[in-house]
Specification:
This protein is 32% helix and 22% strand. By secondary structure, it is of the alpha/beta class. The longest helix has 22 residues. It binds zinc ion (ZN).
């Protein structure tokens, strides 16, 4: 019960904060930033050196050094503020069978897909995760957390709020968001987590049976569900509070409009990263995404980490995660292209908005279905499969034709047998996605994965060019 009260308190705190003026929100943000920096200086050996001489109450964020994924992974043990967290232990824990979705000493672990650049491990403290839940419940009126609804839910435990169709298993950020609910959240929401790996018929059947009020899915999945709805096979979202929430991938205006039309429900968009789950969310009015100023300090910068003016697109985003002192990420680089606008929003929220987050949609491979239509191959599925094969040091998946893929593998010395194992494992996933044998996979050993000359990063998933995509 105390957890329930604490949760209600947090929800109320975030709901009230979203009605504050921009000046009042900036005060909250500033207090959290100062507390974070002070905590990092005291408990993180990495930040102690890096932020030496910085006085929290006088700091200017833009004067602090930036950090990136490589630094995070190479110096994880020094960055983390809990000495009981060691990267090698976390990786061993995540690799062990049966640990998928489990917490490590109370911490929530996340691994990003690393399809461009490297895969990153993030640890959230239990308290930090309660903030993630609370802000999700409080903002955008996603879920009815009123007292009468809580009572109704207690009386009718079957009432389903949310169904999410996501990459399951492993430590995928979008899945972790739904998996690690504090026990008290059952008073607010009941969630059905549906695996993306299921055949589309089974997904449709589960959704029809559950009749959720809110549907969470990646835009690539929404596209498929729109087809099912149009064909009359999928019939959901008739509730007065019905809504669709898109996450993980950029939502194009086209897919947004198709989805709203097919389901007759408003479509919301979420932007987050494994390193900072709830960065921004769209409102009912839909233009841009409101930044959770009290969860994250967000900067838009150019190639040299210099700020770009409001309304202009930068070449990356810097985030400072204000709610997870376990792993202080201060001016941490995300390779997303976005802009901030301070123009007032018709919804009345003072939270500034993030415009078009770009830079992740080119990572998706679309496979042509032999019976028509297409299915997306989620990069996380490939990552999880490759992580499961010993001797695979690095990998790249290249789409050659709408139904033909090539897997390049960098193998450890003496691990030649891993080639056949990796091939069989990925082929099995592909056969589960599309009728057996319809996707042809060729697997070859390579000495290294080349760097993409246009981005300077390793691209582990290389789809067909836009013109050739199914
Ligand atoms: Zn708005």
């Amino acid at each position: 019960m105390s957890e329930l009260i604490q949760m209600l308190r947090l929800i109320r705190q975030y709901r009230r904060a979203s009605q504050l003026s921009i000046e009042a929100l900036q005060v909250v943000q500033r207090q959290r930033l100062e507390a974070l920096v002070a905590h990092a200086q005291r408990h993180s050996p990495f930040h102690r050196d890096r932020l030496a001489g910085v006085q929290p109450e006088r700091l200017e964020l833009a004067q602090l050094p930036t950090m990136d994924k490589t630094t995070l992974m190479e110096r994880f043990d020094e960055i983390v503020t809990d000495p009981a967290l060691r990267l090698a232990d976390l990786e061993a824990f995540m690799a062990a069978p049966g640990n998928q979705g489990r917490r490590y000493r109370g911490h929530v672990l996340i691994r990003t897909s690393g399809t461009s650049g490297r895969s990153v491990v993030v640890a959230y403290g239990a308290a930090a995760f309660n903030h993630v839940r609370a802000v999700n419940l409080a903002r955008g009126s996603m879920v009815d957390a009123s007292g009468s609804r809580i009572l109704q839910r207690a009386l009718d435990p079957k009432a389903l709020e949310i169904a999410c169709v996501l990459m399951d298993g492993g430590f995928a950020p979008s899945h972790a968001n739904f998996l690690h609910q504090p026990a008290a959240s059952r008073w607010f929401i009941k969630v059905d987590r549906i695996s993306l790996r299921l055949p589309i018929d089974s997904i449709v059947e589960r959704l029809n049976a559950g009749q959720p009020q809110i549907l969470f899915a990646y835009p690539s999945v929404l596209e498929q569900l729109v087809e099912e709805a149009r064909a009359g096979r999928l019939d959901i979202l008739h509730h007065e509070r019905a809504r669709v929430v898109s996450l993980s991938e950029p939502l194009s205006p086209h897919v947004r409009a198709l989805t709203a039309e097919a389901f007759g429900a408003p479509v919301f968009d979420l932007y987050g990263a494994g390193e900072c789950l709830p960065i921004a969310r769209s409102c009912e009015h839909g233009h841009g995404l409101h930044i959770n100023l009290d969860m994250v300090a967000l900067e838009i910068v150019d190639d040299h980490n210099q700020p770009v003016p409001s309304g202009q697109f930068g070449s990356r985003v810097l985030i400072t995660n204000l709610f997870n002192p376990t792993l202080p990420l201060i001016r941490y680089q995300l390779q997303d292209i976005a802009a901030i606008t301070h123009e007032p929003c018709p919804c009345g929220s003072a939270l500034p908005r993030l415009l078009a987050v770009r830079g992740r949609s080119d990572e998706l491979i679309w496979l042509e279905h032999p019976a028509g239509g297409r299915r997306s191959l989620h990069p996380y599925l490939v990552l999880e499969t490759m992580l499961g094969i010993e001797g695979v040091l690095d990998w790249r998946l290249v789409q050659r034709e709408p139904r033909r893929l090539r897997l390049d593998l960098v193998l450890a010395d003496g691990a030649q047998a891993s080639l056949a194992e990796a091939h069989a494992a990925l082929q099995a996933e592909l056969d589960a996605l599309l009728p057996g044998g319809s996707v042809v996979l060729e697997t070859r050993p390579v000495a290294r994965i080349p760097v993409d000359p246009s981005s300077g990063k390793v691209k582990r998933v290389v789809p067909l060019s836009a013109a050739r995509r199914p």
